Amino acid sequence: MKKSLFLLTLVGFLATQAYATPTKTRKTKAPKVTMEQQLAKYISYPDALRPSQRPGVVVIQFRVNADNELCQLEVFSQNEQINNSLVKQLTGKKLAGYGSDAAELHTVRLRFQPE
Predict the structure, then answer these.
(1) Across-strand partners of 56?
(2) How far is CA 8 from CA 3, 18, 31, in A?
(3) Strand partners for 58
(4) CB 76 within 8 A of CB 59
(5) Which one of 8, 9, 76, 87 is CB 3.0 to 4.6 Å from 59, fit for a cystine?
């Protein structure tokens, strides 16, 4: 009786272990570079804001193609010079990690501070 009870317990234990999900080891990874940080590498303070030395906020929308390049870029500001400057600076630039869905429209708010 003891042997059969022990075997039954052992079989039950092994069966539960066979279907258990293993725990993942927790590794600390370096934080990913955000989209805003990647865009900041490509953008300089717009010449249109230099005379006034004022901070500014501009909203941009774009898609990322399969090659991780910015495309269909739109800049929403009232200053056409800023719009043209940002389109020129960002068109064709690459964003790592965001090219999986070309239909996704990204909207980013850019804040400019005087240098």
Answers:
(1) 112
(2) 8, 15, 48
(3) 110
(4) yes
(5) 76
